[in-house]
Amino acid sequence: PGGPRFGRLCDAAADAEIALLGGAIVRDAETGRRHNTAFLFDASGASLGDYRKVHLPYEDGFWEADHYEPGDEPPRVMELAGWRVGLQICSDINRPFGCQVLAARGAELLLVPRATPEETYARWRLILRAAAVTAGAYLISVNRPGPEAGVPIGAPSIAIAPDGEVISESLDPVAFVDLSSSELADARREYPGYLSRPVELYRRGWAEVESASS
User: Fold this and answer.
1) pTM check: above 0.85
2) Are 53 and 24 in contact (CB under 8 A)?
3) What gap in Å lies between CA 16 and CA 3, rounded to an integer?
4) pLDDT of residue 87
């Protein structure tokens, strides 16, 4: 934060007068650890917060664990243009922890940038829709547009309503979607949106898992 890439992202948001989600591999000044980090800026270029990717793949074309370490902080909600926004990065969406924590914290919109291959897009589409439904939130996921360095990434970007309806799915470089606060409220009144989240019960369950594995 405050470095050259951070400054370029800030300036880009301010020059275009639109909010911007960007990222970088960031070395922590205190620990020296490197993290895949997303930064969210508002339309004035002001930084609203960041998030470090937690779940790192380790396979051909995606040797991420060799390049940086998993994040060690839970995701937090940020206020953007009247919406409560939460961030996840690519593989994070394959574990429901982040989306559910964000939903419990009141997130209304999940932003999930990713770099995924066409051959697995059907599975990603399923998971992204499920994340929107179970979080009771809008979800927007922008993918890398095409193959890079021999890695066959490239599949549609997608926007999903809280009821799981796909409202945009495109390979175009620019797409627009409308978000409705009334549709969001409806989804949270209906099943499964109204289901409770017994946080203490979840905490006990995970504590037992941790105890059994230590």
Assistant:
1) yes
2) no
3) 20
4) 98
Cα distance between residue 76 and residue 100, in whole Å: 11
Residues 75-85: pLDDT tens digits? 999 999 999 99
Who contacts 23 (Cβ-Cβ below 8 Å, separation ≥6)?
Answer: 36, 37, 38, 39, 89, 113
Residue 9 banded pLDDT, cuts 50, 70, 90:
very high
Q: How confident is the model at residue 53 (pLDDT cuts 50, 70, 90)?
A: very high
How many CB atoms are located within 10 Å of the residue 14 CB? 16
Taking the C-alpha atoms of residue 157 and residue 135, their distance in angstroms, rounded to an integer, is: 19
Whether residue 99 contacts residue 131, with contact meaning beta carbons closer than 8 Å, is answered with yes
d(CA 79, CA 164): 23
